[in-house]
Design brief:
Layout: E1 5-10, H1 20-36, E2 41-43, H2 61-77, E3 84-93, E4 96-105, E5 108-114, E6 138-143, E7 146-150, E8 154-158, E9 161-170, H3 180-186, E10 191-196, H4 204-218, E11 222-227, E12 244-247, E13 250-254, E14 263-268, H5 269-278, E15 290-293, H6 317-341, E16 347-350, H7 355-371, E17 378-382, H8 390-403, E18 406-409, H9 413-423, H10 432-453, E19 456-459, H11 463-468, E20 481-482, H12 489-502, H13 506-516, H14 536-540, H15 543-556, H16 560-570, H17 577-593, H18 595-598, H19 627-634
Parallel strand pairs: 1-2, 2-3, 8-15, 9-10, 10-11, 16-17, 16-19, 17-18, 19-20
Antiparallel strand pairs: 1-14, 3-4, 4-5, 6-7, 8-9, 11-12, 12-13
Helix pairs in contact: 1-2, 6-7, 6-12, 7-8, 7-12, 8-13, 9-10, 12-13, 15-16, 15-17, 16-17
């Protein structure tokens, strides 16, 4: 439960049709199995105490009475056990039969949620037996002097984890045009459970998955779907036990069909709540709902979910290629509009032979092609300085010529030496002034060429550099349009790789691959034996770590302790705890101290869910204090 995680389970027991005694015993065994595995929200299928496929046996008084007795047995079995369990059964109330989900916890029957949508089409004929459920909770007497509320407007929560709110619906409810879970979500439920008995037909699994995924995405919640399987009658249909656990549009766990699998998934409740807070159009109102408390003991939720090292980069190749094409298109369309609006037919790009300037050049080429402008209007400018190596210089020259841009070279060394003399800087003093003087000289050259040619300077800096403030103020920090401003460094690499793989130009393909193989460096210090002496990641830390921290801080507002926990899982075997913590401290210090650079950024297109534009997603005072974030990180020393 720490950091907002709750472990859930979707269970498909192999029931015997019309044998509540056998089924009740099996359900108790499965509850123990799930509790032993650490699950605290356990969901069973629709009508699992009797079996869904009882047919006209639902008219039998004996079956209904035994189902009720088994519900009490199951509830009694949960005494002094942490968590909440949802089981399905037929229940008589005021002369009508209802298909209900019973919530039980710590020996008590907390509430009964009736099914709303009673299907009576194709192979379904539930209306023969069941009545559609009521919304407003009403008391239902289960035995003498003991009653439980019944209604769809029930929400379940625990004082031990007040941020968790659970709503319930049953099978066909999800198939409705307006599912009850929509109302539950808008009433505050951030974990929805569905007790189902969905039979299997060809292709239905994909539709079912899409429904669960879509509802979890639309409501920004977790969704646990438990379905009937082997054990139900196969007289006319077959049930596959297609269980699903989803979180905000992503399937965390999915059962193999026809296997009666119990699946588990840790729902990140904090993440769901962060999404809802951020989305001001998601307005909650729980009036008319009854909130019911259940027993939940604080415990450490062991995470079994996979934490990707590069959250900005899809792991699946097809998705990654699709993402790369989308981002390149967004970048190119953004620049295209700016060039059109300003009637500008010339673009000036400083080409260093590194990843960021490479991507900026490729995007500019796309924009010119979209506008039908000759590529000669792109001025690729190389500006060799004290740290330029032959490798990056050669790659820059080849690249400019490969794409058909106009090549310009301006050696900045002599101009910088004059500047050093003007300000009294010793060339032998390789300090920040030595480095930034070169960066600002380069920016001045680009701006003045743009003036001379009636052109526009295209910025090359990326999102990761902006987050860390790894840019020279009024140097590479400045441009007239920053095409990479919301592209993180880990994604820049994949964009260049994608372009290399799809450009169909062998020479360009080869030079792009060599750029990808070159260490990231601003090349502002003299080379050592002809090799790059200044490697950015040796100074500020690995970009894959910084992008990881940035994503979870900005996307969900997670605290440093939670991000550190996730980073330890994601980078296990790659970085030790001390290294992860060291660079986290660097990240937070730099992120807070360098906001002044982000407060005056040039325009640039947003491409993903995380951006730092002061006019768009992110408004932060330039003098905000980092103290509480660093104090939490200091508390993590020693691996706590």
């Amino acid at each position: 439960m720490r950091h907002g995680y709750i472990k859930t389970a979707a269970v498909t027991p192999k029931v015997k049709v019309a044998d509540p005694v056998f089924n009740g015993t099996l359900i108790c065994e499965k509850i123990d199995e799930c509790l032993e595995a650490g699950a605290q929200v356990i969901v069973f299928p629709e009508l699992c105490i009797t079996g869904y496929s009882c047919g006209d046996l639902f008219w039998q008084e004996l079956l209904l009475e035994e189902a009720r007795r088994q519900l009490f047995k199951i509830a009694d079995h949960t005494q002094r056990k942490s968590g909440i369990i949802f089981v399905g059964l037929p229940l008589v109330h005021e002369g009508k039969l209802y298909n209900v989900a019973a919530a039980v916890s710590n020996g008590r029957i907390l509430g009964l949620v009736p099914k709303t949508a009673i299907p009576n089409y194709n192979e379904f004929y539930e209306a023969r037996y069941f009545t559609a459920g009521n919304q407003e909770p009403v008391p239902v007497e289960l035995m003498e002097n003991e009653a439980a509320p019944m209604g769809t407007r029930l929400l379940f929560s625990s004082p031990a984890m007040p941020e968790l709110v659970i709503g319930v619906e049953i099978c066909e409810d999800l198939w409705m045009a307006s599912p009850p879970s929509t109302e539950h979500g808008l009433a505050g439920a951030n974990l929805l459970v569905n007790l189902s008995a969905s039979d299997e037909t060809t292709g239905k699994d994909a539709y079912r998955r899409a429904l669960a995924e879509g509802q979890s995405a639309r409501l920004m919640c977790g969704y646990v779907y438990a379905s009937a399987g082997d054990g139900e009658s196969t007289q006319d249909v077959v049930y596959s036990g297609h269980n699903l656990i989803c979180e905000n549009g992503i399937v965390l766990s999915e059962a193999r069909r026809f296997a009666n699998e119990t699946i588990y998934g840790e729902i990140d409740v904090q993440k769901m709540n962060a999404e809802r807070r951020r989305t001001n159009t998601f307005v909650t109102d729980s009036r008319g709902y009854l909130h019911i408390s259940f027993l939940l003991r604080s415990c450490e939720t062991v995470l079994s979910r996979t934490i990707p090292k590069t959250p900005f980069v899809p792991g699946d190749l097809a998705q990654r290629e699709k993402r790369c094409e989308e981002i390149l298109s967004i970048q190119a369309m953004g620049l295209k509009k700016r060039l059109e609006h300003t009637a500008c037919k010339c673009a000036v790009v400083g080409i260093s032979g590194g990843l960021d300037s490479t991507l900026a050049l490729l995007v500019t080429v796309r924009s010119f092609d979209l506008l039908g402008l000759p590529r000669e209007g792109i001025y690729g400018v190389t500006m060799p300085g004290f740290g330029t190596t032959d490798r990056t210089y050669d790659n820059a020259v080849k690249m400019i010529r490969c794409v058909g841009a106009t090549f310009l070279e301006v050696d900045i060394k002599e101009a910088v030496r004059v500047h050093f003399r003007d300000i009294g800087q010793q060339e032998s003093e390789h300090d920040v002034t030595y480095e930034n003087s070169q960066a600002r000289e380069r920016t001045q050259i680009l701006m003045d060429i743009a003036n001379k040619e009636n052109g526009m300077v295209i910025g090359t800096g990326d999102l990761s550099e902006l987050a860390l403030g790894w840019a020279t103020y009024n140097g590479d920090h400045m441009s007239m349009y920053g095409v990479n401003a919301s592209v993180p460094k880990t994604l820049v690499r994949h964009l260049v790789r994608y372009y290399a793989d799809t450009c169909r130009e062998q020479e360009l393909h080869e030079v792009l691959l060599d750029v990808l193989d070159t260490p990231v460096s601003p090349e502002l210090l003299p080379p050592e034996e002809g090799q790059i002496a200044q490697k950015t990641e040796d100074i500020v830390g690995p970009y894959e770590l910084h992008d990881f921290y940035l994503y979870y801080m900005m996307r969900f507002g997670f605290a440093p302790s939670k991000i550190w926990r996730l980073a330890r899982l994601a980078f296990a075997g790659v970085y030790d705890d001390e290294t992860i913590l060291k660079w986290m401290k660097t990240f937070y210090r730099r992120f807070f101290s360098q906001q002044f650079k982000r407060s005056c950024l040039p325009d640039g297109p947003k491409v993903g869910s995380v951006a730092l534009s002061p006019r768009g997603d992110f408004r932060m005072p330039s003098d905000a204090c980092v103290r509480i974030w660093l104090e939490e990180l200091h508390g993590l020393e020693g691996g706590q």
